[in-house]
Amino acid sequence: MAMKEVKEASRLKLELDGGMDGDKQIVKSKTYSNVKVNATNEDVYGVGTALAGLQTMNLLKVKKLEEVELILE
Q: Which pTM was predicted?
């Protein structure tokens, strides 16, 4: 049986440096919805780094979150 995947939604998540709490890293995040499902990883990363430049906190990670429906064919 073959599986088919249909991309339904995509989001961009920035993980930002919120400082330290003793010896533990504080990570703040911002998520942006309505990213085109066919956007390339390079494009998402470019937008993420551009948006991070507008933040007061330093960028730790750029993540692309995808929601996929799995269909049994």
A: 0.86
